[in-house]
Amino acid sequence: MAVSRDGYVDRGRDAVSKTLLAVRSAVGRRDARTVLVGVALAYFGGYLYVLGHLRFAGGGGVEYVVVSEPLTRMFRSRGPLAFEPVAGVFVGPIELLVAPVNVAIGAGLALLVGANLAVSFLAWRHPAACGVGAGGTSGLLAGLPALLSGTACCGPVVLLALGIQASGVLIASFGFLVPVAVLLLVGSLVYVGRRVDPGVVGSSE
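The structure assignment produced for this chain is given below.
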């Protein structure tokens, strides 16, 4: 049976609404929140490192520098989706070059990656939230075939975690892949998040 345009819009809104609830549930739980923050910080650091904005030089002291006309130069492109640093912060052996646009892009990607793995973590910890068996070890073992087959929401999590998230830092070297990465990360978040039942996941531990 054909689905009307309004039907697709309603389904899309419902998927987004369920995904936002799943993300809120992840933020509300200490274990999933730890995953989100830890992964996001690790990704963000890796992103800056690959861009060459985060380095370890073995110096000492604390200092910073700012270029002339930073508001103008911050939008000067160095390549596809890579912009010029306008400040430098040096703390001991750590050198951080600050390019506001690159920071915004990296932070956005880091939050998407963190949210993906946090929601995936909830799906792994609570397979019943995906409609796979009951909670606990026995429920997880009983639902393992379904999880691996990809018929449940947790199925793609393994590939996403080992694929998009694990190799995501590499997109910093290929600016044209950033929009593709954003689409994949948003798509994977909605795909998993819309299948997670926040009522099964519960509140923070």
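Interim note for the steering committee: The first strand starts at residue 54 and ends at 56. DSSP finds eight helices and six strands in the chain.
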